[in-house]
Design brief:
There is one protein chain. This protein is of the alpha+beta class and 595 residues long. Helices cover 50% and strands 19% of the residues. The strands form four sheets. It has a five-stranded mixed sheet with strand order 2-1-5-4-3, sandwiched between helices. It has a five-stranded antiparallel sheet with strand order 7-6-10-9-8. Strands 12-14-15-17-16 form a five-stranded mixed sheet. Strand 4 and strand 5 form a beta hairpin. The protein is flat and about 105 Å long.
């Protein structure tokens, strides 16, 4: 009673009107007919849905079993091949190089035929002698190459036949992690406890997942492949495999029918089945809500009966709550405009009910968002400014200049022109970097700074990089923020050209003024990069910024350009793996008088 004094009569109008209209004219009739419909069809819908789910589960489990049995059959065929035992047990000294090479080629050909016939992704033989010349092969390998891998230790420690899922191959190369593998130890027939080799057959995880990802009978249902309570993989229609880990420990024992399971406040129906020849099992999980989906859809029968009541209720509710609905419509349109990126709209709340409170709260929220956005932009500017100041503060200019002059004089006195040239270039490079404390310099000075860096690097690496400069004098007079070209040229050298086998190449630097903007391109013939690397380095920083190290980097330059100049200026990259990279810098053309 004490609380009700703070609730005005108008504040409860919306709730009262909606409850009265919809309960009396819609909810009550529909509730009565829902009870009638549920009492008639609930049991039938459950039986039909579970029967269809059972058939789908049986089919998927049989397909997965067959796919894994194929790996087992391949190993059985190879285990009976005398050539496998011969190559694993023969002494290399007893056979000529030609004989060993012929045996290797013959076994490799056997592997290829089995892969084509069975659909297995890969077959390998790991042997522990020097019989084979396998450095260039991918299917016949020395056991020492796999020593230390988790799967190798498990097979050699357990013996016999072993099965592995993608989670067990996390220490393998990237191309081999998404696979299922069957492995078998080959023992010496003359000493049955002596292991000679390991046979391994792999199939792509996608091949197994296609059976788990079959169209589900029940929406959000899941098929899982388990080892104990560990989820090896799961269908993509529900959740990720890791999300089912907690539920896996609640699943019923294998061999039973559908049993109810409670998890995360929801009810499910689950069933498990053991896979033959291994300690894995299949599980099917169906949300109870999906099992009874048919009964929910049959509510349309009830709606057909009460359509007349629904029409009358709608007209009455519309007449009573017109004023409220108008404000709700205005509120929805304003929120839609905000979702499209327009943060300027504001509402004019009327009344004192719940809708008016929401509208006032929305206005306060938008005002606060405007303030936070302005603060964030200002913080970003300050952070970049402080980063630059911190970098500059790490160098004592006078001490550095005096030291470089002393080294230069010593080099001249000792008649070592190479040292003198290097020191002179290095001194000019640091003078250009500091720019007497200025943050904005002419583009010509920025180009000179980059040229000094190229000279120093070529002195260091014996002129391996040839740089061509195609410069526009008109663009060189425009003002730009400093230290934007040198890191890009450094990136082209270190990560582009120097990663080529020849470690030589060419960089082309162009500057051109195009009306009210400047275009700078740095193009190299290095190794290029893939799409993931390009996005990681040249995409805008996420909220909160990148967690980068090492001072200036490509992403640092990208962020600085966007903060200082805004759209559409910035850093853009085109790269073809194995051919080279082209980086374009777009800047506004700002003259000294406009700075």
């Amino acid at each position: 009673m004490k609380r009700s004094r703070w609730i005005s009569p108008e504040r409860g109008k919306l709730k009262t009107k909606l409850l009265c209209v919809y309960f009396l004219l819609l909810v009550l009739p529909l509730g009565l007919f829902t009870i009638y419909a549920y009492s008639r069809i609930r049991g039938t819908a459950r039986e039909q849905t579970l029967s269809a789910a059972q058939n789908a589960f049986d089919s998927s489990a049989a397909s997965v079993q067959q796919a894994l049995d194929t790996l087992d059959e391949v190993l059985d065929i190879l285990a009976a091949d005398p050539l496998v035992y011969a190559m694993a047990s023969n002494d290399p000294a007893d056979f000529s190089y030609i004989k060993r090479l012929e045996d290797s080629d013959q076994l490799e050909l056997t592997f290829q035929h089995l892969r084509k016939l069975s659909g297995v992704a890969q077959i390998r033989l790991y042997v522990d002698n020097g019989y084979l010349y396998t450095s260039g092969r991918s299917s016949i390998m020395q056991a020492g190459e796999a020593a230390g891998s988790g799967w190798y230790e498990a097979v050699t420690g357990g013996g016999g036949r072993s099965w592995f899922a993608p989670a067990d191959l996390s220490d393998q190369p990237e191309a081999e992690r998404q696979r299922f593998a069957a492995m078998r130890v080959i023992y010496n027939p003359r000493a049955v406890l002596e292991p000679l080799a390991i046979l391994r057959a792999d199939t792509d995880a996608a091949y197994i997942l296609q059976y788990l990802n079959a169209p589900p009978v029940v929406e959000h249902g899941a098929l899982m492949l388990l080892r104990g309570d560990q989820v090896l993989c799961a269908s993509e229609g529900g959740r990720a495999a890791e999300a089912w880990t907690d539920l896996a420990g609640r699943l019923p024992a294998s061999g039973g029918g559908w049993e109810p399971v409670e998890w995360e406040g929801q009810r499910y129906y689950a069933q498990c089945r053991d896979l033959e020849g291994m300690d894995w099992r299949m599980a099917s999980v169906l949300p109870a809500a999906g099992v009874f989906r048919l009964s929910t859809e049959l509510r349309l029968e009830m709606l057909a009966v009460v359509v007349a009541l629904g029409v009358a209720a709608y007209l009455m509710a519309y007449a009573i709550s017109q004023s409220t609905l108008n404000r709700v419509s205005l509120f929805a349109k304003t929120m839609e405009a905000v979702e499209q990126g327009d943060v300027r709209p504001r509402l004019k709340p009327e009344g004192d009910d719940e809708i008016a409170q929401l509208m006032r709260g929305f206005d306060r929220m938008m005002d606060r968002m405007d303030g936070l956005m302005e603060e964030r932009v200002e913080y970003a500017r300050q952070i970049k400014h402080l980063e630059l100041k911190a970098l500059q503060a790490q160098i004592n200019p006078h001490f550095l200049y005096n030291s470089l002059d002393l080294i230069n004089c010593t080099a001249i006195a000792r008649n070592v022109p190479e040292i003198s040239r290097m020191v002179r270039s290095l001194g000019q490079f640091y003078r250009a970097s500091l720019s007497r404390g200025r943050e904005v310099i002419p583009l010509a000075e920025e180009i000179r700074h980059a040229q000094l860096y190229v000279d120093i690097q070529n002195m260091r690496f014996d002129d391996r990089v040839r740089v061509e400069w195609q410069l526009d004098e008109d663009a060189g007079r425009c003002q730009v923020i400093k230290i934007i070209l040198q890191p890009l040229i450094e990136n082209a050298m270190i990560h582009g050209i120097f990663e080529k086998p020849s470690k030589t190449g060419t960089i082309l630097v162009r500057t051109r003024r195009e009306g009210d903007r400047i275009r700078i391109t740095i193009e190299d013939d290095g190794v290029g990069m893939d799409e993931a690397a390009r996005l990681a380095n040249f995409s805008p920083a996420p909220p909160g910024g990148w967690d980068t190290e090492g001072g200036y980097g490509v992403r640092n330059i990208c962020d600085r350009l966007r903060i200082v100049y805004g759209e559409p200026y910035g850093l853009f990259c085109e790269s073809v793996l194995g051919e080279g990279t082209k980086v374009t810098v777009l800047l506004p053309a700002i003259g000294p008088e406009e700075e």
